[in-house]
Prior knowledge:
Order of helices and strands of chain A: EHHEEEEEHEHEHEHEEEEHEHEHEHEE
Shape of chain A: globular
CATH class of the largest domain in chain A: Alpha Beta
Structural class of chain A: alpha/beta
Number of helices of chain A: 10
CATH architecture of the largest domain in chain A: 3-Layer(aba) Sandwich
Number of domains of chain A: 2
Oligomer: homodimer
Largest interface: A-B, 101 and 101 residues
Strand order of the largest sheet of chain A: 9-8-7-10-12-16-14-15
Radius of gyration of chain A: 22 Å
Amino acid sequence: MSSxxxxxxxxxxxxxxxxMIREHGxxxxxxxxxxxxxxxxxxxxxxxxxxxxxxxxxxxVIELMPIANAELYAFKYVNGHPRNHLxxxxxxxxxxxxxxVATGTPLLVSELTLTTALRTAAMSALAARTLAQPDARxxxxxxxxxxxxxxxxAFHSLLDIDTFHLYDTDPLASAKxxxxxxxxxxxxxxxxxxxxxxxxVDIVTTVTADKTNAVILTADMLRPGMHVNAVGGDCPGKTExxxxxxxxxxxxxxxxxxxxxxxxxxxxPADFAVTxxxxxxxxxxxxxxxxxDITVFDSVGFALEDFSALRFMRDLADQLKVQDRxxxxxxxxxxxxxxxxxxxxxxxxxxxxxxxxxxx
Amino acid sequence: MSSxxxxxxxxxxxxxxxxMIREHGxxxxxxxxxxxxxxxxxxxxxxxxxxxxxxxxxxxVIELMPIANAELYAFKYVNGHPRNHLxxxxxxxxxxxxxxVATGTPLLVSELTLTTALRTAAMSALAARTLAQPDARxxxxxxxxxxxxxxxxAFHSLLDIDTFHLYDTDPLASAKxxxxxxxxxxxxxxxxxxxxxxxxVDIVTTVTADKTNAVILTADMLRPGMHVNAVGGDCPGKTExxxxxxxxxxxxxxxxxxxxxxxxxxxxPADFAVTxxxxxxxxxxxxxxxxxDITVFDSVGFALEDFSALRFMRDLADQLKVQDRxxxxxxxxxxxxxxxxxxxxxxxxxxxxxxxxxxx
Lengths: 360, 360
């Protein structure tokens, strides 16, 4: 037998991913991820899709989100624990993997907490660019937590939104968002409640974290032509929109079978009409038909968006010559002799002095 | 806000896991994993269980296997690509994660290629100890690939099996297994075909890799009192036993909903009677009732076994004071301010000089 086949899995730690995004520029990354999502959505029917697998507990949910086409397989691990911030932890933490469909070899393990924030914002802005009025310039952001800066920057980058109205039940969260937006040179103002924040804006983004059937937005807050970007209602029992908001507009979704379970439309009968966004992107279904239409993007986050984001991060790592690797798979001289790897230490090119691997 | 909450995820590379198993002893590890599986199977009803999620392609399959109880969540990524050995790759490669149900924090990322071989063998031997004749001393192993040494050692350790009959369509695989078993001091002999190998033995283990509806074992090869440990038939379109073998014996399974899809019983009608093994272990259903019974363990590999194996590896890492860690989750001073991690490099305790992480 020949010498052992060494399988190296590329690794992007949380710190490495942050450094890559800083180096390439956050707005550039969001725009590139939106482009990757758009191109993957345009080949929608080539993907092996399924609703994500969720394990629910009293405190939150842990989900796995797999997807594949003929070449690449991807999955994301992601949690949602709304009370995590009380102990200094993020509500949403994530990591993911790209693998080779032909052999099953894992190609990349990457943080996805930060990357998910970018891809969610990129998805929201891509949908809004497709559905909102072309002259939209103002947006309310209801829910000013970890995702909110990314939403603002994505809408500024992709749609030229330049005025942001902020509201959160936690004033410290709004103050944090205001500070971060002003540091980016964006116009923003904090309002006293949702009704005040949404008055007069062109787009409303709801991105709240409570794991409850909340009513963040009611129909009387809508105005003709508004686009609603509903991001926070994303698992069973977690909604943000009043039923009348869904009835007032045309509703667009990512992947209908998953959104029926997880989205705001979980409140609606199974035959409530929705349109999958890829159909609008590909010209197979109309988006906004009249200036006065109310459009609702009932976003829950679909595995294909993570697939797109992981593709982007892999390519960016190539471009930036990132070399970090993990040894997840045993190196075997004879693949039928797994037992041999117990006989003696495998030959390893190099050994790190340190034990904590962040690589930046 | 206080300083950033540093989340460290324990990491066990392929080489680290091999070194830990060498240090603790392979037979000790297999016995301990069998004990962990038995104790987890005895609290079967406390687990949130689901059939695994599979993405099939012409060359193989990639699967995710999640499971959780009130404290711990686990999942395994595993592929099955029967032609991988032609390019020097393993048929089965795997890794997995343990996470905290209360917060969703990933606690451990571990190789599971080697560990899966141990847990599969531990599961097989645990089932056989429960179902086979108590005086069984000989076993045929049909399929002499990567899993076969582990099967032999597990049956030797848990059931005192001391005679092994070997057969594989690839003579080099049998020669490799013979060499490895003899090096462990076990009696083994290679036979010319399956019929010759199974003649007169007490237990037959089938652990072949072809992704086809094969007929490895037919009813005329059975003898009264035999236990059949069918390991290789484990996904749709991949079976090893003739239907008459299933009709000749009582069939035991891990998790019925998954085995109906993936096991040899995929060939049988939906009402074909099977018994879940946990019911036998807990005394709620009979195992072998007569010396002449033929018992069949239609094993496909269930997520709970990986949960048990990951628990064992985590505890062993503690015991052996393994310190390896990954940085998968961003360290944030304010969990609602994910954006902040893009401003400046996070504080990292130490930086490895090397880029390939194997830790042994």
